[in-house]
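It would be a great kindness if you could assist me with a short task in structural biology. The matter concerns a single protein, recorded as an amino acid sequence and a row of backbone structure tokens. Kindly check, if you would, that the fold set down in the tokens agrees with what the sequence suggests. Thank you for your consideration; the sequence and its tokens are set out here:
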Amino acid sequence: MITDSYNRIHNYLRISMTDNCNLRCFYCMPEEDYEFTPASRLMQANEIEALAKIFISNGVDKIRLTGGEPLVRKDAADIILALSKLPVALTMTTNGTRLDDFLDVLKKAKMHSLNISLDTLHREKFQLLTRRDQFEKIINNIHLFLKNDFHVKVNVVMMKGLNDNEINDFVAWTKDEPVHVRFIEFMPFSGNKWTSNKVFTWKEIIEVVEQKYKVIRLEDAKHDTAKKYMVPGHKGTFAVISTMSAPFCAGCNRMRLTADGKLKNCLFSKTETDLLTPFRNGEDILPLIHQSIQAKAKMLGGQFTEDFAHIHAEEIANRSMITIGG
């Protein structure tokens, strides 16, 4: 098992397949003309499989593939199918633009659950947020995967003054379709123009929903990051990931492997541990994994607290979200 100094067992690994993406969401990717990591510095397909096996042999039983956009990799299908043969629950976070090309692959991989990022239900606003005209494609792919009995979670980064007026539109979506909406509090990363007054909190979101609906609080599993709710009679559910206003660090079981093979023990960690270089040199990387997780801070990378109103984003040492992995 992989544990930290607070006796948290880490059995969940998020693997970023690439920092490349075909959208340009401002809160994730700092600039339109972004310099992506050269292919030679990325983990290769066989390296991703080999590293995953090391983590699995030490207690990891869930892997989430992320990016960037994982499905823009030319060998994405090979990676997915290779990992699907391992004794691990496999899932993925995607922007949904290429899902129709991968329906058969994901079925073959028995990947039954997907997280799809979609921050607005309005085409014009989507184009403003992402700088790309892909709204209809994503909506159609969500419907395609619901029709094929996938468990679809829609990730919505909630930003005050930008899309907070759509909260109940998203909740209304859960009425007739089994879609599971997850509102995510806006988090600070390098270059994403975060300020505390843009954070629309968990409690504020619930207050908005309760103005229109009666809601039922659902039971959360031990390691859940989302506080789950449903409206009686709705086929789907909604939830809030309250990273800023009510962190869930006490139950954290997650590790992150960046596309260039660096291990981050927390989304907000200042430091990271290079696994790819020593792995390519034939070294035993297991001690490095244990050292990294043992050094994990109690909460939020040791960089700030839930008193987010006093955070100075420019003082936080971290990567941009796209280079960490969603």
The radius of gyration is 19 Å.
